[in-house]
Amino acid sequence: MTYRNLTLEQPEAGVFLLTVCRPKALNALNSATLDELAHAVAHVAADDAARVLLVTGAGEKAFVAGADVAEMRDFSPREARAFSEKGMRAMRALEAARILSHDDRITLRDAYRFLRRAIDALRMVRGDARDLTVPAADSEEFQFLARRLGYGDRVQDLQADLERHTANVLELSKLLDKLPAG
Fold this sequence. Notes:
2-enoyl-CoA Hydratase, Chain A, domain 1, three-stranded mixed β-sheet, 6 helices
């Protein structure tokens, strides 16, 4: 298969290098890229000689920025759900190929769900989709964010969840540092 948004190379026997090639979009994952990613992972998983799949992003600014919100902007609720399910299928494919452990996939899934809710709530708090900076924990905006996310007056619980999910994602991203330079 020819990919538009990825490259899949095999620099040596058993080693595959998959590069997300959308640097102008900070390698954000749109529908086409998710389809290609699932196909590429399945291709590598089907190769009995495969030992390693290195995943990287093109450009210097981002590995992968996450979901392509520009594509999602005009989605209907049904389209948004289908897009989210496509992303989850890609994560399950990484798990099936033993690239990602089950526990790590669940950790990333939970962080994704929490952070998506937080981003949606921040849009309501700020009234501007471009300003997604979390307000200071002692601010009225943070209190409003906590209420919007269903925490009520338990702002410390929101702060703890933000810190936990962020730490989990950062910890899993350290796995990338352990990969051989290439």
